[in-house]
Amino acid sequence: MTRRSIGIIVNGVTGRMGYRQHLVRSLLAIRDAGGLPLADGTTVWPHLVLVGRSETKLREIAQRHGLDDWTTDLSAALARDDVEIYFDAQVTQQREKAIRAAIEAGKHIYTEKPLAEDTAAALDLARAARAAGVRTGVVQDKLFLPGLRKLKRLLDGGFFGEVLSVRGEFGYWVFEGDWQPAQRPSWNYRAEDGGGIVVDMFPHWHYVLAELFGEVRAVSATTATHVPRRVDEAGRPYQATADDAAYAVFELDGGVIAQLNSSWAVRVFRDELVEFQVDGTEGSAVAGLRRCRVQHRAVTPKPVWNPDLPVTEDFRSQWSEVPDNEDFDNGFKVQWEAFLRHVVAGESFRWDFLAGARGVQLAELGLLSAREGRRVEVPELSL
Ligand SMILES: NC(=O)c1ccc[n+]([C@@H]2O[C@H](COP(=O)([O-])OP(=O)(O)OC[C@H]3O[C@@H](n4cnc5c(N)ncnc54)[C@H](O)[C@@H]3O)[C@@H](O)[C@H]2O)c1
Predict the structure, then answer these.
(1) Is there a contact between 172 and 360 (Cβ–Cβ < 8 Å)?
(2) What is the pTM of this model?
(3) CA dist list (Å): 14 to 53, 100, 204, 235
(4) Which part of the chain is the GFO/IDH/MocA-like oxidoreductase domain (predicted)?
(5) How far apart are alpha carbons 350 and 187 in whole angstroms?
(6) Ligand 1: which of 14, 25, 74, 91 to mutate, most ligand atoms within 8 Å of CB?
(7) 51: CA distance to ligand 1 center in Å?
(8) What is the pLDDT of residues 264-316, one digit of tens each?
(9) Does any ligand 1 atom lie closer than 6 A to the CB of residue 17?
């Protein structure tokens, strides 16, 4: 068995996503499993080069996980011949210039979403990467969640007949930071620092809708900043300048209407932090992060509207659980493995910078729709 080491820069490894999902749950998990096996018997071994701004934090993370390759000098890391992949989980605003440097250094690039702050910049990165002949990928983790995988299975099996509509609820209460610390970084609530729920969530909604139901052709969005004052990590009050809720309708290719609410100012009365209800002519499903429940046409009850009587049916109990039927691994890890196979073995990988640019475009047009109070068509993007 041959072992093929591949040097990967992990930039932003001290952050929430960089540390937990990408370093620990994906790259270190691949190493813990002995590397990533390829079809030809080769094992891919990620050699990690941790990059960040704080020496103290990097050293501490490296020591905790028995790693010894880290630096605060991104240019020096990019200049190394033994590094083939640049990965970016920095705050969004720092991403574009780092990716540009990585393209110039000839590295393959994998990155957190959103790819860039606006569509023009995202497309420009996609074109530059193509011209440089480097491979690209953008995180689209929700596609690999067990709940959505089961939903995809239902779609592929024709369970719904004709899909009519999708309604999604995403969100939870993000504490203001005064009497309890906030559970998300404060930059998320400042537009000037790249924050906002539209910029954060619409890239996800784009790939979920496009991959499962059809490309988004138009968006109508209303946004709000429900909590205008928050307190940051250092205990300083600040003005929340970014949207913390978005109420949007997406019109999809083929006629499906998707209505998705996203909010950091909502208290959860659901079974999971995100849930999508899909209604079709033959059946309906409700999918969350992990679970997926269905109700077929043949077993659909016939409620009759009568506010004078108490509810007689337990509606939730009328749905059946879709079985797992397989082991679902961490979604971030599954996508990392696909990207590594793409780089090392040339396997196909469709979640590239152009796909990422489409997510950025939907966020940009969603904000435009909210600003101008109108429905906005979403033009096809190409390189
Ligand atoms: N795929 C997902 O589900 C998902 C979820 C949350 C966030 N994200 C994305 O991941 C990225 C990081 O988000 P996070 O929640 O981990 O943020 P975070 O604030 O926890 O981490 C940000 C990282 O960027 C680094 N950084 C570099 N330059 C910086 C600067 N000038 N100011 C502040 N930090 C700087 C920080 O040191 C840290 O390592 C964002 O682009 C976000 O959109 C993706």
Answers:
(1) no
(2) 0.96
(3) 9, 21, 23, 20
(4) 149-285
(5) 30
(6) 91
(7) 13
(8) 999 999 999 999 999 999 999 999 999 999 999 999 999 999 999 998 899 99
(9) yes
